[in-house]
Design brief:
4 copies of one chain form a homotetramer. In chain A, 39% of the residues lie in helices and 12% in strands. Chain A has 9 helices and 7 strands, in the order H-H-E-E-E-H-E-H-E-H-H-E-E-H-H-H. In chain A, helix 2 packs parallel to helix 7 and helix 3 crosses helix 6. The relative contact order of chain A is 0.15. Chains A and B meet through helix 7, helix 8 and helix 9 of A and helix 4 and helix 7 of B.
């Protein structure tokens, strides 16, 4: 151990030892992660640059994320394992998403979160650049009732190229996210979290639909009242949030996986 | 009989006897109900959580509705029979839509209605949360001329999770619907009714298109006049509402059923 | 002849003799008419209720129009021949579009017109119900530069079910259309005309895109100036309107006909 | 040589000698140009009238552009070679895009540009006809940070049919474009340039998405503040603009080329 420390002190340029694997994840979890990638691409939530991950089922200190590939092309062989510092367990020369730190840092900060989506969905961009809070207009978006914070990278790191390219930036984003289920990223996109892959997929789809609905309601109302979900309604809906999710997930999965 | 009553009094936990079947429905009706599910999913009216039903052709006290499944996946084998209290005739362990009570209670209240759609269509959500009445901008939406009431579940049941999960809530919704052909459900979606499956499908598609058209007309007009359908025009159109419906239904059906 | 007139006077209930056929139309014209139906359906201009026709190449007093069928399903065998009073040459029990009179009356009034589209396209509905003239925002819509009249059936016929169901109503619409290349039909849709099928298809697609573009430009400008096409620019563009049309027509046709 | 000049002086009607070929381009470049055509058509950026070109890899004084064909139909055999005056090297009777001068003149004026797109994309038309500058709302559109000039052909050439049909008009457009990466063409469309085909495809897609996002942000903000990208952020993003492009390009290419 002392020898290692001396080596480490003496030779900082030596490659860090990669983290140990938690072992194979449940094949069904891998299959669902592949499906989540394909569904979110098909549903217009993820473009070539977005990504979705899931916490390893065998070890909360590991998560699974594709190598750097457009979500619509991801297969089981592309899934890589990371520790929560977003170091790859077995890189084998594969390119990694530069913004994997979004996932690792959120998994660190939020033991309740099992799946994370990072998106550039067009529907969310406008809400990230104006002073109009995104709120739940309908029941599918009840998970937004606690508020949707806006992460403005300028406040953490001044002028940047906007990418969450290291742990510090990931931690800053996770701090803004706090206990919420989604955060907008000014001039960039959004991050959405959930206790499962089906739920993070559903939330990612419906945060976009709610954003559209709120924008249209505001236009229609032309300054008049909009009846958003009451906080108590949101609480009751969130208590049964998995309602109907299984049947929607089956349909999304079938449609996404049949069209390779 | 007396023995049964005593048993019933003594053992309220015993399962109620399921209602008797009205016998097999016309296979063509089942086929059309499957098609209606697929068409409405393909046309973007129904997502994984919406549903469509039809009154049984052999008995007005029964209706047909899929088991809890995303509409795009429904097949003839998934169709279940219910009484108007939304009790299943032959459940066989299949999951049921929690909101089947929407259908049963409307069939009770409206002997003229033969088909019901419950939707979360994004186009309708904004109109359910603002004080802007949805009105017919063009002839395809003439069936809205009598008005489109908004059902706000808070008025019937205070704070809830928004689901129509029992007969009382279904009856409250049916009461708001009254004699109208559609009602918006605040923060939830809408319900549309009609004297046939092809017509409820057509109405569900065109209520969405009319909502979009009205929103755009209001934007264009910027406070100026919008010429909605005259009530007499609407009456004359409604008198011939089936015009052209058969050829549209054939095309929708062909497109939806060929793409499994 | 005199005998016929006496018969006609004495027995008005006798079926009128159908008009004589002009003989077979050029098979290529039939093929293009089928393609036009399919293209306009695929491009979202025609729904199950709209239609497109072309003047017979052998006789200007005849036109070709499908039997009453959704445009996406039309084949060569569905094409019927009509005189300009919209009487069928050889009906053979086939259902006819109730609004075929739109086509016949326009062919009567406009010897320059060789093809006609009647559409309910959603993009056009708002402009038909507000006091905002539809104008060409960009070069593809230069054919609108002369103005787009609005036909309000109330002015011709009072309260109706909005359908152009006879020659008188068709003549009223043709009168409003005048020399223009398109007219909106309040609360109904629009009619577009052109000297060829490829051009009427192109015009029908671009009147919709221009409507969207004008609506968005008005929103952006928020009362500020919008630079529409100058009348002289429009004149010069219209003089070369067929530019590039052939290559677009080939692509639309290929895409529409390969997907039956 | 003197004989040729005398002939040229005496007989201006004689055909000019076509320019010499630079030799075969890299087959991969041709393949990418075909893919760019198909991707941009599929992504809704190019209709039947738009086009995309790339500078020849063997000679900066030549560029490659399809014959006059809708982009969705372009194959390797359709690619033609041009000099920077937009004269074809080997026309072989093939029709040429009337507006090829857009490409040639930009390649002349901009040695840094390797690929050019000319589009009529609907999302961009509104910004070309109003006094609202198109600006980068999010990181994908950072390349717009230097400004997006509007080319109004009236200022160069008075009343025209709007087509860039000769070198002078192409040069005028290139002059307005200047050092920018995109220019809007009033009442016509836009031109986008880049140092590679994948990047011009990406920029063409994201200028449209940014236009939509800015329009929606302006609506939401209703006169309030919109936080556009800071110039320094844009500079830093532009410095790493190729980030993730390869994986998006692979996905776009796969999707466009698999569906012939």
């Amino acid at each position: 151990m002392i020898a290692f420390l001396l080596l480490f002190a003496a030779a900082p340029a030596l490659a860090q030892t990669p983290p140990a694997s938690a072992g194979p994840a449940d094949p069904k979890l891998i299959e669902d992660l592949v499906a989540a990638n394909r569904i979110l691409a098909q549903q217009g939530v993820l473009d070539g640059w977005g990504h979705v991950s899931v916490r390893h089922d065998k070890d909360p200190n590991r998560f699974l994320l594709s190598r750097a590939l457009a979500p619509e092309l991801v297969t089981a062989d592309d899934i890589m394992e990371y520790d929560l510092d977003s170091n790859p367990v077995d890189q084998r020369g594969r390119n990694m998403y530069s913004e994997r730190f979004i996932h690792g840092e959120i998994y660190k900060a939020r033991p309740d979160v099992m799946a994370v989506v990072h998106t550039h969905a067009p529907a969310l961009i406008p809400f990230g650049v104006v002073n109009v809070p995104l709120k739940p207009v309908y029941h599918r978006a009840a998970f937004l009732a606690g508020g949707v914070p806006i992460f403005d990278i300028q406040q953490s790191a001044g002028m940047t190229d906007m990418l969450i390219r290291n742990n510090d930036l990931g931690a800053a984003l996770a701090k803004t996210l706090g206990k919420h289920d989604a955060a907008l990223m000014r001039g960039h996109g959004a991050v959405i979290v959930a206790p499962s892959l089906p739920m993070v997929v559903s939330r990612s789809i419906f945060i976009c639909l709610d954003a559209n609905a709120q924008a249209e309601a505001m236009q229609l109302a032309h300054g008049g009242t909009i009846k958003y979900l009451d906080p108590e309604e949101a609480r009751l809906i969130n208590a049964r949030e998995g309602y109907g999710l299984q049947r929607a997930w089956e349909a999304w999965k079938k449609k996404a996986m049949n069209r390779q």
